[in-house]
């Protein structure tokens, strides 16, 4: 299957910006047998690309310097990705980061009383660890319905678990925190999802992956209740959202920003 992505991120500032720097992790991963980049381009208005490199997680990173005095920065990504049938199984661990690194909790994924209580609710009556992981995924979405407006980028897994609703980022963080507490390496994934009921979207997607002995990494999309398939494009991975965020940045000055995202993913 071939998927076409058109993704525009627009920052509008209420006053000219003297200096700003944006870090983009918006280039899909190229992994043999799973997904292959046929073409991909990043175009910038109001700034310029300074550097492209691969980070310690194997993510493609672009650094964008915003032109001094600009009131708007536009980042457009577009391209075509070819995906194979892989049904959520990524396979054996690769890259520079040792596997044990993904057992390490972060401030966003630290397991506290709520996460431990969630694990205890699962019980032990499972044929194998993968069955338990799927049961955990189902339990998380049962406890925390998908609702926007109750959490933000700084919400921890523990905080989200006690909220009135959460989004894919929160579901992934809770799952990661629980799986690490159970002794399984786990990581965060940001990417694109082709939805069956719409072409236009207002945000990228996020899910989690956990590592199992003799099989390797397996993906779990808690928000949608299944493992990723050919509709999913893996873009960046990391210990949590901060490692894999599509766009992060900093700026000088008191200007306030308005963010508008336009995204289309279609076959």
TrEMBL record:
UniProt xrefs under InterPro entries: Bac_transglu_N, Papain-like_cys_pep_sf, Transglutaminase-like
SMART domains in UniProt: TGc
Pfam families xref list: Bact_transglu_N, Transglut_core
Transglutaminase-like domain ranges (all copies): 160-224
UniProt-listed PANTHER family: BLR5614 PROTEIN-RELATED, SLL1049 PROTEIN
Protein name: Transglutaminase
Source organism per UniProt: Sphingopyxis fribergensis
């Amino acid at each position: 299957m071939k998927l076409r992505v058109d993704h525009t991120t627009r920052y509008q500032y209420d006053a000219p910006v003297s200096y700003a720097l944006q870090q983009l992790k918006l280039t899909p991963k190229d992994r043999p047998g799973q997904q292959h980049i046929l073409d991909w381009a990043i175009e910038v208005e109001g700034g310029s690309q300074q550097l492209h490199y691969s980070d310690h997680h194997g993510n493609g990173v672009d650094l964008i310097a915003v032109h001094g005095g600009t009131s708007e920065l536009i980042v457009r990504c577009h391209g075509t990705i070819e995906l194979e049938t892989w049904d959520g199984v990524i396979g054996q661990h690769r890259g520079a980061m040792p596997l044990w690194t993904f057992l390490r909790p972060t401030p966003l994924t630290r397991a506290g009383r709520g996460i431990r209580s969630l694990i205890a609710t699962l019980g032990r009556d499972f044929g194998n660890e993968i069955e338990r992981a799927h049961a955990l995924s189902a339990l998380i979405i049962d406890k925390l319905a998908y609702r926007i407006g109750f959490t933000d980028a700084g919400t921890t897994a523990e905080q989200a678990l006690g909220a009135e609703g959460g989004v894919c980022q929160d579901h992934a963080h809770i799952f990661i925190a629980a799986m690490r507490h159970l002794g399984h390496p786990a990581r965060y994934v940001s990417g694109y999802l082709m939805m069956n009921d719409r072409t236009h979207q207002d945000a990228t997607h996020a899910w989690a992956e956990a590592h199992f002995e003799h099989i390797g990494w397996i993906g779990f999309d808690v928000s949608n209740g299944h493992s990723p398939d050919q509709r999913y494009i893996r873009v960046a991975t990391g210990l949590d959202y901060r490692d894999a965020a599509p766009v992060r940045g900093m700026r000088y000055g008191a200007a306030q920003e308005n963010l508008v995202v336009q995204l289309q993913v279609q076959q």
